[in-house]
Specification:
single chain, Aspartate Aminotransferase, domain 1, seven-stranded mixed beta sheet, six-stranded mixed beta sheet, 17 strands, binds pyridoxal-5'-phosphate, pyridoxal phosphate, cytoplasm, L-seryl-tRNA(Sec) selenium transferase activity, EC 2.9.1.1
Length: 443
């Protein structure tokens, strides 16, 4: 059959579009997307990759399997709780429900009894103040970086932000906090040395040009050995002497101390020690949606809320709803993974190992997301051949294992227990695929 004959046999776009099954799927995918899928598959037939009679079934299958979002759910088998590449914190059940509630029209800026406009984020504010009574007021913005930008812009303007050289942090993917602060016009006044900064270093840097004092928790690295820093309470005395505000960026965001993370600073302690404003991320240890939270003195929070930047950095209603539900709701998946019962974790790991005929090895979990860098969370993993990793990642459900020293490690710390069976099935499928690729599968 000649090329022209083949072309004539390829079903036409209008006929395909009218197919009853495609009509049924049209609510989920728009016509533009469906047309592009049709065109792509027709092109495959025109180039001879596909037989004309396979065009219609191929299109129906492609449209039926295409999800509205290209984001795919992943089972996190790395043991890293706040995994930045997997969207940091997985939301609690109540936060997921809150997202759906907020998806339609909601009273995000409306007082329904009076019919008057109300302050955006009132629910989140109340939830944060209940969870952190030592704060006079609270404001949530788009993320931690936005909170820091807002705080330093409002408090320093184009004046100086005084900060220790040991706290000039790069938070990831090339983004550096000092550059972020300077991008809004404030000037950095670095004091001390990388490993040691003393009160006197801050003192001699302060004067007319000082806008605020900033202390940043070096959340994603550790400097050990000959080190010293200046505590929040010491900085408080200095701030009082010079009548300048003190901002403390804690990064990961424990609202109150957690015994599993004894050296991780928390908001309540920083406020008690004298910070005027404390900044934390909402999607690290707090376990909520992407957000940045400012807690502290009422007068300063009010100035931030009024600043034009606050409008550019404001949270959307979906994240507001999820954050409120996170702060006032049940134990989050992040907290659950952090406090996973070792006995239960071991039992589940052994059950998986048995189901897939592989061995259990000791494996430490991590907080991740640039939090608690030195903290190991002892646990276990099922060890698979390294070749299983790719099949796991591309399987259904997608599973992200840890590849380490020639092995593929499956850690159950961050897997919800309900998913254990799906995980076992995914591992079995990946092992079968890896075995076939090596030529050891089947006979
Ligand atoms: C993570 C982090 C930030 C940035 O917060 P995002 O929510 O990622 O924008 C800022 N400061 C510190 C110390 C951090 O750890």
């Amino acid at each position: 059959m000649g090329k022209d004959d083949t072309r004539r046999l390829i079903p036409r776009t209008d006929r395909l579009l009218a197919h009853p099954e495609l009509q049924g799927l049209r609510g989920r995918l728009g016509e533009t997307v469906i047309r592009s899928i049709i065109q792509e598959i027709q092109d495959q037939a025109r180039s001879g990759e596909l037989a004309p009679e396979d065009v219609e079934p191929e299109i129906l299958a492609a449209v039926a399997s295409r999800e509205a979002t290209s984001l795919r759910p992943v089972l996190n088998a790395t043991g890293v709780i706040v995994h930045t590449n997997l969207g940091r914190a997985p939301l609690s059940k109540s936060a997921r429900e809150a997202l759906l509630t907020a998806a339609g029209y909601v009273d995000v800026e409306m007082d329904l009894p009076s019919g008057m406009r109300s302050r955006r984020g009132a629910g989140v504010r109340q939830a944060l103040l209940r969870a952190c009574p030592s704060a006079e007021d609270a404001l949530a913005v788009n993320n931690g970086a936005a909170a820091l930008l807002l705080a330093t812009s409002v408090l320093a303007g184009t004046r100086e932000v005084v900060i220790s050289r040991g706290e000039l942090v790069e938070i990831g993917a090339g983004f550096r906090l000092p550059e972020l602060i300077e991008s809004a016009g404030a000037r950095l006044r670095e004091v001390g040395a990388t490993n040691r900064t003393h009160v006197g270093d801050y003192k001699s840097a302060m004067g007319e040009q000082t806008g605020c004092l900033l202390k940043v928790h070096p959340s994603n690295f550790q400097i050990t050995g000959f080190t010293s820093g200046v505590s929040v309470s010491e900085l408080r005395s200095l701030a009082d002497e010079h009548h300048v505000p003190l901002v403390v960026d804690l990064g990961s965001g424990l609202l109150s101390p957690d015994p599993v993370l004894p050296v991780e600073p928390d908001v309540a302690s920083a406020l008690t020690a004298g910070a005027d404003v404390v900044i934390v991320s909402g999607d690290k240890l707090l376990g909520g949606p992407q957000s940045g939270i400012l807690l502290g003195r009422a007068e300063i929070i009010a100035r931030m809320a009024r600043h034009p930047l606050a409008r550019a950095l404001r949270m959307d209603k979906l994240a507001l709803a999820a954050l409120e539900a996170t702060v006032s709701g049940e134990v989050t998946p992040v907290t659950a993974a952090l406090h996973a019962d070792p006995g239960r974790l071991r039992e589940r790991t052994e059950a998986l190992a048995e189901a897939v005929a592989c061995v259990v090895v000791e494996h430490d979990g991590r907080v991740g997301g640039g939090g608690a860098p030195g903290v190991l969370l002892p646990g276990w993993a099922v060890r698979l051949p390294e070749s299983a990793a790719r099949s796991l990642r591309t399987g259904s459900p997608a599973v992200l294992p840890r590849v380490h020293r020639g092995a593929c490690l499956v850690d159950l710390r961050c897997i919800p227990e309900d998913d254990d069976e799906r995980l076992a099935a995914a591992v079995r499928a990946a092992l079968a695929q890896a075995g076939e690729a090596l030529g050891t599968g089947g006979s």
